[in-house]
């Protein structure tokens, strides 16, 4: 009776063997398969192996046979090719919002999607300059809950905190819970942000997910004003430089031609660049002006000038004059 039960598992055992040990560089010979089956208490003949492989092919598994010396059976095309898995592993390992512990768990799961030989190539270290991993394990699950709330059009509630110099959590509003209608998630500068409408507020705001705690999806329907109905997540992310809040306006920049790539990287390939003489172009974009924007602008040097709106030009000039005045003192 035991052998009969094991025979029922024959295809499953072959399926597992091929997935774990059979790739193009490491084909499994028919005798090796028969020996592996025998160790599982499953007797098999050479002819039956060919029949089983045809069954697995019909099931959708890309089973290949290489004939000749050092030949054997292996999986051809998998759901994920090795270069794709390497790319995913690199993304997980270099992502700041994924904790080190969760990164290791995800990489182990990704490694299970290829043969054990190719999986060894995925166990590598990716160096990212000054990479700091979050220690907030709840971020991984908070993102999933936020996606669920967005799909269900339900409000969420959470506490929001900052860190003090002793690396202790200091809750904003003395720990009072925020009630927010979520509209989208943005991954910017290695952090996840929730874009949402706070109940009782007057505009869309964004919140760092790793600074949330006690996140709960409520049964309350999502709220918002007219601006939320036509909400464009990509447009919102592009306007808010490094996700800092500020005053919104139509910004006009006059740039030397050498800054074309810089502007396209910052504002997207669809940004309209209008030639202005032989060596310059003008870029006009909707943006949110913040001290971080001015800092980015200053870093580009004299090759980029802010020419509009007037209030932003005056504000930028005032910041520069104040900085110079403090330095002279």
Features:
single chain, six-stranded antiparallel sheet, 13 helices, 12 strands, 329 residues, four-stranded antiparallel sheet, alpha+beta
Task: Characterise the protein shown here.
The protein has 329 residues and is an alpha+beta fold. Helix content is 40%, strand content 25%. The chain has 13 helices and 12 strands. The strands form 3 sheets. Strands 3, 4, 5, 6, 7 and 8 form a 6-stranded antiparallel beta sheet that branches. It has a 4-stranded antiparallel beta sheet with strand order 10-11-9-12, covered by helices on one side. A two-stranded antiparallel sheet has the order 1-2.
Question: Care to give the gist of this entry?
Answer:
The chain is α+β, with helices and mostly antiparallel strands. The protein contains 13 helices and twelve strands. The radius of gyration is 29 Å and the shape is elongated.
- Could you describe the largest sheet, including whether it forms a barrel? 6 strands, antiparallel
| % residues in beta strands | 25-35%
Radius of gyration: 29 Å
What's the overall geometry? elongated
- How many helix segments? 13
Care to count the β-strands? 12
User: Which structural class matches the secondary elements?
Assistant: alpha+beta
Report the helical percentage: 40-55%
Terminal CA distance reads: 94 Å
Instruction: Give the ordered list of helices and strands.
Output: HHHHEEHHHHEEEEEEHHEHEEHEH
Give the integer mean of the pLDDT values: 85
Uncertain residue ranges = 125-130
Helices and strands in order:
Blueprint: H1 2-8, H2 10-21, H3 30-39, H4 46-59, E1 63-66, E2 72-75, H5 82-94, H6 100-111, H7 116-119, H8 139-152, E3 154-163, E4 169-171, E5 178-188, E6 191-198, E7 204-208, E8 212-221, H9 226-229, H10 233-239, E9 247-256, H11 260-267, E10 273-275, E11 280-289, H12 291-299, E12 304-308, H13 310-328
Antiparallel strand pairs: 1-2, 3-4, 3-5, 3-8, 5-6, 6-7, 9-11, 9-12, 10-11
Helix pairs in contact: 5-6
């Amino acid at each position: 009776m035991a052998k009969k039960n094991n025979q029922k598992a024959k295809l499953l055992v072959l399926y597992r063997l091929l997935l774990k040990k059979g790739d193009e560089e490491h084909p499994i010979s028919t005798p090796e398969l028969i020996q592996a089956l025998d160790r599982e208490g499953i007797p098999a003949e050479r002819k039956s192996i060919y029949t089983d492989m045809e069954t697995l092919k019909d099931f959708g598994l890309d089973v290949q046979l290489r004939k000749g010396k050092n030949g054997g059976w292996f999986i051809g095309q998998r759901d994920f090719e090795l270069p794709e898995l390497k790319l995913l592993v690199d993304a997980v390992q270099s992502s700041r919002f994924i904790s080190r512990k969760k990164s290791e768990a995800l990489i182990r799961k990704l490694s299970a999607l290829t043969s054990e030989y190719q999986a060894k190539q995925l166990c590598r270290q990716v160096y990212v300059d000054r990479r700091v991993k979050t220690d907030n394990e709840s971020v991984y699950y908070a993102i999933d809950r936020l996606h669920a709330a967005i799909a269900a059009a339900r409000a969420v509630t959470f506490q929001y905190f900052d860190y003090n110099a002793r690396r202790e959590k200091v809750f904003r509003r003395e720990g009072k819970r925020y009630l927010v209608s979520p509209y989208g998630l943005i991954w910017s500068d290695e952090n996840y942000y929730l874009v949402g409408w706070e109940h009782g507020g007057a505009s869309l705001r964004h919140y760092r997910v790793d600074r949330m705690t006690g996140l709960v999806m409520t049964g309350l329907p999502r709220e918002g004003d007219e601006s939320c109905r036509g909400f464009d997540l990509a447009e919102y992310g592009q306007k808010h430089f490094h996700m800092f809040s500020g005053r919104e306006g139509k910004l006009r920049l006059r740039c030397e031609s050498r800054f074309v790539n810089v502007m396209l990287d910052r504002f997207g390939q669809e940004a309209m660049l209008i030639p202005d003489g032989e060596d310059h172009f003008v870029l006009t974009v909707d943006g949110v002006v913040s001290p971080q924007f001015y800092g980015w602008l200053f870093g580009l040097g004299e090759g980029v000038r802010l020419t509009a709106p007037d209030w932003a030009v005056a504000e930028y000039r005032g910041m520069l004059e104040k900085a110079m005045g403090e330095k002279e003192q």
